[in-house]
Amino acid sequence: MTTEQIKTGDGQVTVWLDGPAWDDHAKTATIGKCKFNSAEAGTRLLDKAAALAKSHGATALIGPMEGDTWHSYRLISERGTVPPFLMEPGSADHDKAAFLDAGFNVIASYFSASAALSDLPGPKPQDTDIFSIETWDGTDPDGLFTQVHALSCEAFAKNPFYKPISLDDFLAMYRPVVSLLKQELILFARDSKGDLVGFLFGIPNYAEGPAPASVILKTYASLQKGAGHWLSYQFYVNAKAMGFETAIHALMHDDNLSAVRSGLNGADVFRRYSLMGRSL
After folding, report:
1. Tens digit of pLDDT for each residue in 122-136?
2. What residue ranges do the domains of the chain occupy?
3. CA angle, 42 as apex, 28 and 73 as ends, to 5°?
4. Within 10 Å of residue 104's Cβ, how many Cβ atoms?
5. Residue 176: count of CB within 10 angstroms of its CB
6. pLDDT tens, position by position, 230-242
């Protein structure tokens, strides 16, 4: 990725000049790794970043986003009182004001929610012969993430702000967390031919310490109707059997099916996030 850093005594930002598509803009850049001493300092840095992106031909700037949605993006718009969880993006309380004062608007909204596992998993989904659910056997993590990469690229291709990622870059992101993985929290849906049609990636919330009480439903994707429901059901069953007390539904778009599923399972929203955009 082509990046440029802007650094002053008041803070710093990094600009990615080859960002994902946004609406009908000819070229979008992104801005991330934002560290502002104040809202006013942030606004000045964001204006500098916008001028830099425009000088390189960008017609829009979105952020916070470290190049694409595979990496860290979004700012916290409503913090609440729940402590940060593992892999959650962070931002200062004044960051949103800095973006708004620099001419950005909210272009997408997200939330995280939690639910007591004592209230889950709810009714068992209807049995099916179309696919089966299996748990990762704990071996060959590169093979695991190679499968997840291929299905993710297909399942997420129509999502807003989608941009492809190479397998090498994808593996580089996930290899550092292999030691944290629990095989019972990584689930696959396979069709009758054994082809992967869905996956769910969960991880203990080690931000609470070495013996966390909460578990994060980080990502799931499905190419087969009904597989997502089965994957989440089995995730709750497994997490409950492992002794976890709370499930965190992490970083869901306000409009997607995950948000609907979270609502159906009685989850309580504890944090909200925004992605910001500005035409240049």
Report:
1. 889 999 999 999 999
2. 3-109+275-279, 116-272
3. 45
4. 23
5. 8
6. 999 999 999 999 9
Q: Any idea which residue has 């979004």 for tokens? A: 74
How many Cα atoms occupy the beta-carbon half-sphere of 56 within 13 Å? 19
Beta-strand relationship, 28-36 and 60-63 = parallel
* pLDDT tens sequence across 21-70: 999 999 999 999 999 999 999 999 999 999 999 999 999 999 999 999 99
Residue type, 155: A
Write the single-letter amino acid at 111.
Answer: F
At residue 246, φ and ψ (nearest 5 deg) are: -135, 140
**Runs of H (alpha helix) within the chain:** 39-55, 95-101, 141-155, 167-174, 227-241, 257-264
Which amino acid is it at 196? Answer: L
DSSP 8-state class, residue 122: -
CB 187 within 8 A of CB 136: yes
Contact (Cβ atoms closer than 8 angstroms) between residue 258 and residue 200? no
Beta bridge partners of 272: 78, 111
Q: What fold is seen in the domain 116-272?
A: Aminopeptidase (3.40.630)
DSSP state of 124: P
